[in-house]
Amino acid sequence: MASQRDQVPILVAETDDVRPFARLLRGIGLKHHAAMTISNAGFEVTVEEARSMCATAWIPANLFTEFTFTDEDPACFEISLDALLQCLNIFGNAGGGGAGAVPVVGSGKKRRWAGEGEEREEDDGAWRGKGRERRTGMRLTWLGTGYPLSILLRDDAKGPVTNCELFTLEPEDLVNQPFDDANRTNAQSAWFRDALLDLPPSCQRVTFRARPQGEPVTDSRTTSVRARKLAESGSFSIFAEGDFGTVQFDYPYDAEVMDAFECDEAVTFSYHASHVALLGRAVQHSAKICLQIETTGFLSVQVMMPLAENQPPELNNGILDFKMNALEDDEDED
Predict the structure, then answer these.
(1) Which residues face 205 on adjacent strands?
(2) What is the pLDDT of residues 67-108, one digit of tens each?
(3) Residue 208 to residues 102, 185, 211, 227, Cα–Cα distance (Å)
(4) Could you mention a single GO BP entry for this protein (predicted)?
(5) CB 176, CB 28: distance < 8 Å
(6) CA dihedral sign of residues 284, 86, 76, 49
(7) Exposed, middle or buried: residue 213 (CB in 10 Å: 0-12, 13-18, 19+)?
(8) DSSP summary character for residue 169
(9) What domains lie within the chain, and their CATH numbers?
(10) Element (DSSP H or E) covering residue 277
């Protein structure tokens, strides 16, 4: 019987810099275990929160300098996302993830995300270009079902090398229901990120409202001039109420902010504030979001990472997808 050393792995994924890979995994690190699916297209890593919220990181093969998967069918197993992120940051070069940018609302308790230690690590400067930075290279291999995930890590080009192995388990069933496109907003991430950071810490629900072009705005909190502009263009609004007041953000369809806005009928749905706040980390380093709401209130928020310089626009550097149901006791309001 051949030893593991002599066997040919069915998966090989190499990169000179683990930060983009770690950043996508950290964006869904709200749970410490995840289901990982591998195919020729790359990785699909999924976590669930109390079976009411699902978060998936789509990590494309083009994110790696080499990616090979030889099985005909996709493979799926459960791993410790917490352990994987700690391995990737074993030399301290994978970035701390900016935990301070995640709003704490609803429960009032700070969550320990996968990959974090007891002390909050400093955010990396990968996107700001501050001098020459040390990088961690990675070679990830897998021999197949029943074998561990092997991760060879090198600190910079001539630094020390370490090898980590993570056990793989049979995955649990996930409630990752399909999504039917309905009302859709494509926009720059900055406005959504700023709105999340301004949510009242004591709010229990966050309300999303979409109005089509020509729909009158009767909200008493909106001035007549503003209401007329929102009605003329169509709009998307975010509303939350806390112990010391309310916040409302109104976004008319503006080509400078939104790439697309599709709304056939007015919809209003509310969601757990603690679930919405979990998007804060995902949008921190993102370029765009695609927010979609079904007529039933089922919400999907896709967060897209920025393209590298000279990268073809048809490629992507990863997408984070969050799905959640609306609160059941909520009814549409105008």
Answers:
(1) 272
(2) 999 999 999 999 999 999 999 999 988 875 444 455 567 655
(3) 19, 12, 10, 17
(4) DNA repair
(5) no
(6) negative
(7) middle
(8) B
(9) 11-166 (3.70.10.10), 183-324 (3.70.10.10)
(10) helix 273-277
